[in-house]
Amino acid sequence: MRTVFAAALAASTMFAAPAAFAQDGEATFTGPRVGVIGGYDIIRPGSSEDSDIDGDDQSVDGFLYGVEAGYDIALGGAVVGVEAELSDSTGKVKANSTDPNYFGFGEVGAGRDIYVGLRAGVLASPSTLIYAKGGYTNARLNVLASDGTTELRENFELDGWRIGAGVEKAIGSNTYAKLEYRYSNYSNANFEFNNGAVTDDFDIDTDRHQIVAGVGFRF
């Protein structure tokens, strides 16, 4: 995070501008927003655990898609805000090991992911925002039935944190496009059966990398 914020500070110094510049930025990057996102999603074991996933890279990837909402406040040449996101993924995991203390969750498909967090950035131009973000994420891994279909009522729920950085470009006064990278780490999980019973929490170490593009509308 120090590296991300150092880069943001450097960008702020490089693109410093007069008061009129900041006023334009305030009009562009202030207020509520909603949007859609899509991109590349990859899940793999963390540094402290190994797995027996089929394949040499011990990872699973898929297409990420979802919706987001947020509220931003411009403060001179800087912007701070809150945001929330609901997404899903097409990735599926096939593992030889079913020990939940490792990445081998069994045969599962990546399910819905909820994220809530903060972001802060600096204006690189009146219409360009460079930002960093961070917050809480809760992800679901849906258990795959033996016939290859997905059993949505039986799943692992993973708790963790997320950090990221990106660039947002204002298109006119009300729309925007963005590109960002996010890293998530999940360290805690439980298993929910289809009858509603939930196991005690157990430790995991699961990493998630995402490259996401998005478009949205500001009110």
List keywords for this structure.
9 strands, mainly beta, disordered N terminus, 219 residues, elongated, eight-stranded antiparallel barrel
Task: Give a brief description.
With 219 residues, the chain is mainly β. The chain is 11% helix and 63% strand. It contains two helices and nine strands.
Write the layout of secondary structure elements.
Layout: H1 2-14, H2 19-28, E1 31-45, E2 60-75, E3 78-89, E4 92-93, E5 108-125, E6 128-144, E7 150-171, E8 175-192, E9 202-218
Antiparallel strand pairs: 1-2, 1-9, 2-3, 3-5, 4-5, 5-6, 6-7, 7-8, 8-9
Which structural class best describes the helix and strand composition? mainly beta
Beta-strand residue percentage: over 45%
Q: Round the mean pLDDT to the nearest integer and report it.
A: 82
Q: Tell me the Rg in angstroms.
A: 19 Å
Largest sheet: 8 strands, antiparallel, barrel
Low-confidence stretches: 1-26
List how many beta strands DSSP finds: 9
Strands in their spatial order, largest beta sheet: 1-2-3-5-6-7-8-9
Walkthrough of the structure:
It is found in: Membrane. Residues 1-22 form the signal peptide. The structure is a single chain. The chain is mostly beta strands and 219 residues long. It is built from 2 helices and 9 strands, in the order H-H-E-E-E-E-E-E-E-E-E. It has an 8-stranded antiparallel β-barrel with strand order 1-2-3-5-6-7-8-9. The longest helix is centred in the first third of the chain and has 13 residues, at 2-14. Mean pLDDT is 82; it is low at 1-26.
